[in-house]
Write a structure and sequence with these properties.
- The chain has 127 residues and is of the alpha+beta class.
- It has two domains: 35 residues, no CATH class; 78 residues, Alpha-Beta Plaits.
- 25% of the residues lie in helices and 14% in strands.
- It contains four helices and four strands.
- The strands form two sheets. The protein has a two-stranded antiparallel sheet with strand order 1-4. A two-stranded antiparallel ribbon has the order 2-3.
- The termini are far apart.
Length: 127
C-alpha cells in the first residue's frame, strides 16, 4: 500500500511516542478499554458510520481515493477537477481513507444514525 512494510515500524514508533508524551508504560495502557466492553447483543444494529470528504478541507491529493481503490472497496469516486465523493452504499467504514489522507483538518466520518449510538442496549433487528 502507500507505506508498504514500513507501516509496522511507524506503528511501533507512534506508540512509543504516544507513551513517552504521556509518561506511560505499555503496562499502563493494557486493559484500559476493558471497562467499555459490551456484549454484542448490547450494540445497536442500526448505528451506521460512513466516510465523508470535506470539499473545503480537501487538498485533492487523491490518497484517500487510492487507498480505497486498492483495497477493492472502491467507495470513493474521483470526479472531474479531482473532486472526491464517497458512495455511502459501498463504504464499509474501514477508516483507510482518513489514515492516508493528507488533509488532517477534514473530519473523516459522518454518522448516519438510525439508532441512538454504537452501544444503546439490547436491540431488535430493525430494517
Amino acid at each position: 500500500m502507500t507505506y508498504g512494510f514500513k507501516v509496522m515500524q511507524n506503528m511501533i514508533s507512534g506508540l512509543s511516542q504516544y507513551l513517552d508524551e504521556r509518561e506511560m508504560s505499555l503496562s499502563d495502557l493494557v486493559g484500559r478499554a476493558v471497562p467499555k466492553f459490551v456484549e454484542w447483543q448490547q450494540l445497536s444494529l442500526t448505528y451506521v458510520t460512513r466516510a465523508r470528504i470535506s470539499q473545503e478541507d480537501c487538498i485533492k491529493c487523491g490518497r484517500c481515493y487510492v487507498a480505497c481503490e486498492d483495497t477493492r472497496h472502491q467507495a470513493i469516486a474521483m470526479k472531474p477537477g479531482r473532486v472526491l465523493e464517497v458512495n455511502d452504499a459501498v463504504c464499509v467504514a474501514c477508516n483507510l481513507c482518513s489514515t492516508f489522507a493528507r488533509c488532517e483538518t477534514a473530519s473523516p466520518w459522518k454518522n448516519c444514525r438510525r439508532g441512538a449510538g454504537p452501544a444503546q442496549g439490547p436491540q431488535s433487528r430493525a430494517p
